[in-house]
Amino acid sequence: MLFRNIGKTEIESESLAVGILSKTDETGKGMRFPQAWDNGTGKRIEKRIKKRIEKGRETEMIYTVTFNPSLDYIVAVDGFRLGMTNRTSSELILPGGKGLNVSMVLGNLGIDSTAFGFVAGFTGAEIVRRVEEMGVKSDFIHMEEGVSRINLKLKSIEGTEINGCGPEIGKEAVEQLMEKLAALGKGDVLVLAGSIPKSIPDDIYRKIMERMAGRGVLSVVDATKKLMVNVLQYHPFLVKPNNHELGEIFGVELKTREEVIPYAERLREMGAVNVLVSMAGEGAVLAAGDGKIYEAAAPKGKLVNGVGAGDSMVAGFLAGWMEQNDYRHAFHMGIAAGSASAFSELLATGEEIMAIYRQLAK
User: For residues 243 and 5, which has the higher predicted lDDT (pLDDT)?
Assistant: First the structure.
């Protein structure tokens, strides 16, 4: 077995589908670690957690916020014909949303998180059921009216999808979320990811960051233009645009890592601590909090499903940072997680991520 007993913590040998071990302390709170981390990673995290327990706190907690989660209905249609009746050759239903993707990949890497967000109706109930079935703790706000959206994604034609609207979210519901976030404290991590529904003001990320200011919460923002730029004054620990989103902010087209670097540095100058730029097949760039620039080409592999690759990169970066507090390690973990998900039909498992990480670390 990978882990030894430490203090009051016992290790259970429960085997989960994603290949992880489950740790449960006497309070019943679970901590999970992947069996694939046989290169010392698990032992180092275990040591850090032991120190946190001795200090009276189990570990830092990560919270993700997905304002408009979905059920993603992913279908393939052979020989799709517009205006005709088409039949699927394969179907898959998964919970969707950028924050949820971050939580699910973190879980595959052995790190617990709590998923916040808004759900409604029978689709909302199914989102909650599937998320918790995957081992992610959820604390969603349930809306009384409307239904959570269903997003149709057509695999046969790359990038073709029809996304639903989702329920109306009023001021009272938003305030309920704010009350939940008020419990966050020093050492916790808050991930704000994805778009927001039309019913929510477009300054919501800024208002959340304003409330988090001065509380020692590490914040991560993965969103488009205005949502991201508006929070830079609050010095988020990490922002993660892709090269197209970064170019949109500054009104330029960015295709290469060399072109991305100066604009990533400008986002740092505007307030972000770390700027991680994903570039699909071109790799990634990190303008890091230590003032250095890290860049890497994309690992070799066959693109199977690009959905969730950027979210996986965020999860990998956070996992690496929480393990070693080292930017190079966190950067490599981010690239490994993003690439592993891109090379997989589903979000990457811990084993798939670590296999690519070992290639990068050579």
Answer: 243
